[in-house]
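Can't paste images in this forum, so I'm doing it all in text. The chain is below; anyone willing to post the predicted structure tokens underneath?
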Amino acid sequence: MTPTNAKSLESWIWNAACSIRGAKDAPKYKDYILPLIFTKRLCDVFDDELNRIAAEV
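Text version of the structure:
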């Protein structure tokens, strides 16, 4: 893929994402992102503890 085609593809995908999510202010994204980050961290800690306990047993 040439750089021009890659740039136009990136632009097309970005515009599609913007139309899907609608008009939102940047600070509003934290309402969605922070709970996802928290949940991911919680799952990672759970998996680590589960593996640690499984190794002990």
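The chain is about 80% helix and 0% strand. Residues 33 and 39 are 10 Å apart (CA to CA).
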